[in-house]
Amino acid sequence: MTKRTALLTGSTGGIGTSLVSSLKEDVNVISPTRKELDLSSNSSIDDYISSLDIPIDIIVNCAGIHKAGKCEDLTTHDFQNILQINLIAPFQIISGLVRGMKERKYGRILNVSSIWSIVSKEKRSIYSASKSGLDGLTRSLSLEFAPFNILVNSIAPGYVDTKMIQLYNSEKELEKIKKIIPLGRFAKPTEIGDLVKFLCSEKNSYITGQVIPIDGGYLIR
Hints:
The protein is an alpha/beta fold. It is 44% helix and 14% strand.
């Protein structure tokens, strides 16, 4: 049986690296570099999609950017930039590849969202807005694509043990956060990878339109 092929964006980040490792055990993984696929450029996305010479069965939109700041200190340029990478680019990739999935009557689409799409925190306004939009896209497209056996889901990671959380939180803040996570620790990137692997596999045949938190219980604290 021919292996399925997955297109994964954001493969060099802490979570993205783990997703590549998890997915490549069962599927062919295409993980373009920024030089090959610049998500900030609509024309680059169109050109990349046109250049693909292999059917894409799985899309994992993992790439994302974040800028924390008070509302009055953020600019419309910041808003447009974050929306482009976190929301518009995933939509453009999906819309550019879904026709082939519909023809083959098979597809798995996974958007990497965040717990900050469900709850929020000060100085996270633009990031939360972009991820909430991504989850709305997930729900709507899951209905649109269901007749074609294309399942669309989001995962919403909480605090994951990557360099990103160290960038936006001091050591003191990180220790404080651990104390309010019921499991008492941050997620390992491999734990995120295992969930994505299942949702993108043929073993998942009935989960669609969901935003699934993976946060150690943070949201129910």
